[in-house]
Write a structure and sequence with these properties.
Hypothetical protein af1432, 17 helices
């Protein structure tokens, strides 16, 4: 069986969407020609939409724990909302909306159970063999782990076009090579640099393509607005309390500490004041039909405000001709940046940094650590068939540890808790038991 690895466009010469070159629709592995009914980018969006990794986001934490409330967002609903915002911005700017949509749907695929808390623990556990980063894990899923195309030498994941893979790379650099040495963010693990380099071929160093910038801005916009909505409806945040000077100051301090240490409290207060001055800003929420409609109108107005500001500012710099790839850069006005930061920070102040969450975070961290120890100790016993196969073909212990991390990252919050209960609660801790077999639960999770 020969490798599917592509050396050029080959039989991939489909109709090019406006603004894109032949190289943008190349795939990492050659595929037979497809029907012309859809563009390559429409096909890519469909591949992400139908992926198992996207479905799993429905049971992964966004801010509040997945399943904790029927109303709050999960990673899946958040991703769908980001995709809608991204399509709107892309349509306004003229870049292909399906490229942006696919990137937006993909942007959180690599996040492990328990959100950023789980990400932090996995990064610590993987520190000696490349670390863990949700965005690098997304690239790994798209180009290796999500089953769609498998060659003789390796799996190729969804085998998306170059433009879509590049659009999904939020941090276009490897570990330790970013512009900020203090940041732990990066876009590719060492053993994924081959496909990363292919996707970034010809791209300016450290510069995201326009579609990735649209995805990033859309993520910030959706995150800031919808997390506030969840916090208000969930009762964690009463916007009326921000009229109290001490309460307001404390909340803005958290905003500054979490998101904008370079900005003054006065600038953040001014940004919040601009939002409060709008006729649609809601000062109290009672849960009635009229109140719920008012909150929904506020979220809609905020989305429109931020996307409109971004499109207008970007157009000032690049004119009104359609732009794509590296034709332009997204511009987020300073006032808009501060307003988005304030909303994100308020969610942090009243939900994520709440003292009541501390025991929850500690339990989540322990679950991840315990699962890593147990899966490493028991080899393929509790790995799903897909990851058991990767374990068996791994070249060394570091590669096998990476398989364990890949497996844990794939779990939903519920699956992680369920397996932890079996290993550590229902049957007691089996990590220290020498060779005691455990029931194979991998395929059911």
């Amino acid at each position: 069986m020969t490798s599917l690895r592509a050396s050029g466009p080959g039989p991939l010469a489909e109709a090019l969407p406006p603004g894109y070159a032949a190289r943008d629709v190349e795939r990492w592995a050659v595929e037979p020609p497809k029907s012309q009914a859809r563009t390559p980018f429409q096909r890519d969006r469909a591949r992400v939409l139908h992926s198992s990794a996207l479905r799993r986001l429905g049971a992964k934490t966004q801010v509040l724990g997945a399943g904790s409330d029927d109303f709050v967002r999960t990673r899946l609903t958040h991703s769908l909302e980001v995709a809608q915002v991204g399509r709107d911005i892309a349509t306004e700017l003229g870049c292909d909306p399906d490229v942006v949509d696919a990137a937006c749907l993909s942007h959180d695929l690599g996040h492990p159970p328990f959100g950023h808390n789980g990400e932090k623990v996995l990064d610590e556990l993987a520190a000696d063999f490349g670390g863990f980063e949700g965005n690098a894990q997304t690239l790994r899923l798209l180009t290796r782990l999500e089953p769609k195309i498998v060659g003789a030498d390796r799996p190729y994941g969804l085998n998306l076009t170059r433009a879509v893979v590049d659009a999904a790379i939020k941090y276009p650099w490897a570990r330790g090579e970013g512009p900020d040495p203090r940041s732990r963010k990066f876009g590719a693990y060492a053993d994924d640099l081959g496909v990363y380099d292919w996707a970034r071929e010809g791209a300016p160093a450290l510069r995201k393509c326009l579609e990735a910038q649209v995805m990033d801005a859309s993520d910030d916009i959706a995150y800031s607005v919808h997390d506030i909505e969840d916090a208000v409806t969930g009762g964690s945040l009463d916007l009326a309390r921000l009229a109290d000077t001490l309460e307001r100051g404390a909340a803005l301090y958290v905003v500054q500490d979490w998101y904008t240490p370079q900005d003054s409290i006065a600038d953040l207060d001014e940004a919040l004041g601009r939002l409060e001055a709008q006729p649609w800003w809601m000062r109290s929420f009672t849960g009635t039909m009229r109140s719920a409609a008012g909150l929904k109108d506020m979220t809609s107005q905020l989305i429109g405000r931020f996307t409109g500001d971004v499109v207008a500012a970007t157009r000032e710099g690049c004119g009104h001709a359609p732009v794509a790839r590296f034709d332009a850069d997204i511009v987020v006005p300073e006032e808009t940046r501060l307003e988005i930061a304030v909303l994100k920070g308020l969610a942090a102040a009243y939900v994520m940094s709440s003292a009541s969450q501390a025991p929850v975070y500690e339990q989540q961290e322990q679950i991840i650590r315990d699962l890593f120890a147990a899966l490493w100790r028991t080899g393929t016993t509790h790995l799903s068939p897909l990851y058991a196969e990767l374990w068996e073909t791994a070249g060394d212990d570091d590669a096998r540890r990476r398989v364990v991390v890949d497996q844990i990252a794939s779990y939903t919050d519920l699956a992680a808790r369920r397996l932890h209960d079996v290993l550590y609660v229902e049957g007691g801790s089996h990590v220290t038991a020498a060779d005691e077999p455990l029931p194979g639960l991998g395929s059911s999770l």
